Structures are given as C-alpha cells and as structure tokens.
Fold each of these.
Amino acid sequence: MMRRLVLGGAAAVEPGRVLNARCVRVAGQTYPMLRPAATGAVDGVLARLADAEALRRLLVYEGVAYRLARLAVVGAEGRVVPALAFLPSGRMARRFAPWRYADWVRRWRRAALREVERFLACPQTRAQIRGLRHWAAKSTPRSSTLHGRCDRASL
C-alpha cells in the first residue's frame, strides 16, 4: 500500500539484500533508513519504477535528508544487481535506534499512510514533483531499480 501510494502506482519488485548495512530508526522518528555497517545485511525489495513520474514522486517523498546512491544488491537467485538506494545525506540525526518492520506495522502504519496521503495531496508537494520534470529528464540514471527501505513491504 505505501509503495503504491508513494510511487503513484504499482512497481515490479523482487527480493533483494544489501550487504554491509543495517536498518535503523532515526531517534525520535518512526521511519527506517539504511546505514553502512562493517557486517550485516538488510533484506528488502528491488523495485523497477514504471516511469520518470514515479522517480520524481519518490525523490520528493524522501526529501533532502537522503541522497540517491548506487549500491550492489544481491537479487533473486543470488545474482548481484546494480541498484539505487536512498541513504542519509549527512543532515540526519546521529542517534539511531533499532527498527523492526512488524513493530512499525503494529504501531505506526495507519498513521504513516494517512500522513503520506496528506503530503502527496498538498499543492506544494505536487508543485515540487512537477518542478523535477526537467531535472529528472536529464539526470535519471539508466537503471531505475531502487532498493526498498529495509523490508519487503516497507515501501
């Protein structure tokens, strides 16, 4: 539901795993993010975006607190797939807490869906998405595969 809402439609997905990473919650927030780690792995999904509009929506949704980074992700059948992921841009808080998808669903999913619906319906948000058309046409990488945040169903 969250993925469809943010992207404006469905995306083809397959399981994916980021190595040398962990999934954490920014202290004081409810959402997860990927952090580099010496050991560990984060299971998620590889989502193939339908079009440039989906990328623009995702860029606006993630905001300036994240940067788009290229990662090697272990995809289906163990093959390594080049992908893009949103990583902290340096503007994020430096304190983190554990994050578990099942806990988020139980405590925050309904409120998060309502908040995202309001955010995406806001005229300023729509204007930001439209404003990225020129940038996205020039800057969209050939691969529009993105690694989902921390869990199969989290985006």
Note: Helices lie at 2-7, 52-62, 101-107, 109-121, 123-131, 133-139.
Amino acid sequence: MDVAGLVYARSVTGVWRVTMKNEKTMKHNARVTGLMMAGVAVLLTAGCERPAPEPNTPAPIAPAAPAVAPLPAAPVIPTNPLKEAYFGEQHLHTAYSLDAYIGGARLMPSDAYRFAKGEEVDVGGIKLRLHAPLDWAAVTDHAEYIGEMYSTMTSGAPGYDNEQLKQLRDLKGYEERERWFLEYVQKPNRGTKPEHAPFFAGHETTVSGWKQIVAAAEQHYQPGKFTTIAAFEWSAAPGGANLHRNVFFRDMKVPERPMSYVDINREDGLWAWMADLEKQGMTVIAIPHNSNASKGMMFPAEDSSGKPLDRGYAEMRSRFEPLIEMMQVKGNSEVHRWFWAADEFANFENADSLGDYSGRDLKKFGKHNWVRWGLGKGLAYQKSLGVNPFHYGIVGGTDNHNGTPSNVEEDNFLAGSHGAADGTVELRRTGEVGGWLKGKDLNPGALTGVWAPQNTREAIFDGLKSRETFATSGPRIKVRFFGQSGASEPPADYRTLVERGYAQGVPMGGTLKAGSKGSPTFTVWAMKEADGANLDRIQIIKGWVDAKGEPQDRVFDVVWSGSRKPDAKGKIPAIGNTVDVTKATYTNTIGTGELIGTWTDPTFDPRQGAVYYVRVLLIPTPRWSTYDAVRAGVPLLPGVAATVQERAWTSPIWYTPAG
C-alpha cells in the first residue's frame, strides 16, 4: 500500500483511524498544497525582508524548518478468525440511576469503566477491585431517571436548586433512603401509568445526562483492548411485573435521548421506536432480564393490547431481541427447583423471596417465568406462526447498583450490590433489597461471554446480535457448542472442533435445517478459568413441545470428569465436595480443567422442532454467604446453601423440521 494514499484522522477517543484517498483526490490535494506553500513563501519574502549583511560579517543563519512529527501508526487490533471469548458486563447502574443514588451510589459511568478495566474504586468506604479486568462493558442506567439525576448532580443545571433534590443529596439513614425509594421509584413506576418524579426538570436534562453517559463510553473505548457500548435500561414494570429491557447501540450513532417507560409503556412500542431508529441509520438491540420476576408476562400468550400473539409481534420481537439475561443478582432465571424436580441441578440461586414482593407469587405463575420454558414455548409459536418470538440467545449480567460492573466473584461481594440495602454483612444476612427480595437470596450476579474475532465495538455487538454468546454465574469459563446434520467423528482437539464446527455446522445461536443425514451431532468443549475451580460435567438440555403445544425438556449428561459411570437410570454420580465451610476454602483434587465431547440425540424425531443448549457445571465451591460468615466470625445462615456449583449456559442451537 502506498503511504501517500493514507489519511490519518483523530477521533474524539484519541484513536487514530486510517482511510484511503483515491489517486485523483491525492493529486488535487498535492497541487493545492504546492500553491499554498508558494503563496506563503511570497508573503514571507515581501513582509519580512532582512537588510543585507555587513561586509566581513557572517550571514545570519536561517532558522531550521520545524521537523514534521511522524504520524502515529494505526493501532494493530489482534484478530482471530476462529474467534476469542470476550467477557463483559451488559447490565450495570451508576449514580445516574435514581434508585442507585438513593442507596448511596456515587460512582459515575466513567468510574464504572475504570473499575471494569481493573482500577480500584471506593464503594461506601470499601475498596474494591476486580480479580482481572473485563474485555468490555456497558453502563445501563434507568432512562426514567437520567434527567432527574443530571439535575441532582450538576450544579447550575435546571432543577438543581429544587428543595426535594437538596433532600436527595443529603439522605443519610437507611430508613430515610427506603422511604425515598418507595415514594419516588417504586410507587410511580410499578403501575400501568408511570410518571416522572415531581422534581423532573424537563427532557433537556435527559438529553444532557445522556450526553455525559455516551461521552464516558467514547472516552474509555480502546479498540483491541477494552470495548464500551452505549446503552440504557427501559424499566417497564406494569403492575409490578418486571419487563425491563437493556437497549444497546452498535456504534456512537445514538438518539438524542433514550426512551423510558414513561415515554413508551409496553415492549411492542419500544420495538416500534427501535425500528424508527434503524430508518435513521442506527443499529440497536434490546435484551430483556429478570424473567423470574415477570409474573408470567415475559413469555406471554397475548400482546400488550390483549390480543393473541400474531406473526407481526413475533417478527418484531425476534428482530430486536436476540438475547435474554439468564442470571443476575436477583436470581437465576433458567429453572426453579419447585417446577423442575427431575433436574438435580435446578436448586441454584432460585431467589425464592422474589415471590414475597409486588404480588410476584412464584408458585402462582409456575413455569411461565423461566427461560427454559420460554425457549420451549417459542417452538410452539414457530410451528403456528412461522416465527419464533422467543428465539433467544443467552447472556448474564449483574444489575449491580453500586457502579461496579461484573463484580461477580463470590469472595469479592464485600459491598453487596445495592448500596445501603446490602452493603454490610448483617444487612445481607437479615435485610432486604426493598421491593425485590431478601438479602440472603442475593448473589453476586453473572457474566456474559461473546465469541468474536476481535475486541472492538462492532465485533462485540455483532457477536451479541448473532447470539454466539454464553453466560456464566461468575467464573470465566470458556465454552463452545456446535451442531451439524448427521454423524461426525469426535474431534481430536479443540482446534479441530472449532474449524469443523464452523465449516460443517453452526455455532451456538445457529439453526439446523431439516436434512437427509439423520440425527444431528453436537460437539461441546469447556475450559475452566486459569485460577478457578475445576469442571464437573457438560450437559445438553433439549426442549420440544408435545401434541398440545406444551413445552417439554430433558437433561442429558454428555461428558464428565473422572471415571464415574452412569447408573441403571443413566444418572452420573455426584462429583463430591472438597469445601471446608469453616474456612471458606476448596481444593481442585476433584474434577478436571478441560472437557471435550460429542453427542447425538437418541430421541431425535426429524418431524419435531427442538431447541438444545449446553450447561457446564463446576465442582462445589463456597457461596458468598459462607465467605461473609467466615470473615465476620458468625455462624452460617440456616436454610441457605453453604456451597454452590457455579455454571455456564450457552445460547441454544435450534432444529427446524421441513415444511
């Protein structure tokens, strides 16, 4: 490449970007530059004529022409055509969220990104730092309060001197904070007609606050090293049912202000707004979360007007919502032990006390709150409508309200997740996060892994949109999942698995079409994080619908550590447990660091649609509450698990029959 054809332009991020100029333009620019330089020389000669030197005196030395600083080289961004797993946060709140600020959050979006990159921050007097930096992060503050918080935190802003905001800035005790939360967060936003707080000073404050949030994302973007994504949360909660969505943009083409639950009352209205953004050249997706608190409304049979779901609804939902959050601090939304008794690993961070608040009786809504059921129900709509409205890949997040993205390690839950509500050991043991759940039912949250060729905003976003994603309950487990039609030889190694997976089949998030090669074959691989707990097993969960259109599922063990053998019913014995709960320690004397395997569905029916996803289980390790108890010298919480089996879930692979 001719260096003369490169033009360097520095963006507001400080990143040098390189583009090519065509030959004609370059020649024109050269002619213009030459004429300009000649003109400058004439002017200098005419206006700056020096007297002739005296005889026998040396002529003055002309000043040296200033050296031209070399142009910085364009950054070289590492690229892997077989893709890398990039770990990040897709659900995080800072002081720009009113509920977070009420709880004591004072970290700003820029602080959150600093924390994500490995810097230390202070949360309520507690120093926190991630065990390892993240690869990417998004700040998703509540759109409903961005304007109010801009007024609160920006001296001279419209509304800054409002008496109520003066009170807000001076909140002290937990009870006072709780009253504020109930009055200005829960009360106006858990009905069918949400409204802004009385101290809202107008949309111009939302515009200004949004600019600050987007600017922080642009400031901290380091292509190839750390990616930021402009995002916000649309926090719909009609009748207390959680229908929240996080909204993400592929680049810095973003709207003037985000839309809130006050502006748009239901999810189909949000998709219509997003469709309009697409017409303006923006690329946008939404990710719903907390289906476990949705009162059965996350996977509905009717649209917002009360009509049965139709093809138009299904198309819009599938188009704009490629992913769903599997787990966060308020519980695991995969399954619940009450409704999946046959799944021996369903008793994991079930967050039972969610059902004690806002009429969210978990037993009343049964399986309809849970992602596994939703994935199965989507198959019924695929058959009846020709489109699957619940065509969801899998991600994880925290919903942390301290401004500390992906602070998910069980031993690092020192400041909790919701400020004053769970910021001490005692509050986590005996308190509650107002309007949501009891402190003992919290967990540190989950993490998203994205398979992408490079760590850039576009590549991470594209990986999310294509559903080549997985969630973990915290550990940075890497997991691969491929499917192909017909039989396949077991891969000899990881690279063979990946190369063959892309060449002959589809990765997680893909769809297998009906063919003549028989039952599909799936290949799986998982690796523990370098300093983490060993792996127990890899499972594949299959979903389908029966003749009545009701979701069914079955769990298959695919590959496991050690020499364990299935019993007469095909069940693999438990891995064992090395945890010493008196010290909150464990050892890797059981399990293994890596698993790889191949599986063919023994129940496959080519006429029946199906959905398959992977679940990876680790050996038992101490739960956060056990670390708390040991550090504080207090007893373990009665009725609360002292250990957990951390895990990962992949996005599914779907099978679609002919016709």
Note: The first strand starts at residue 6 and ends at 10.
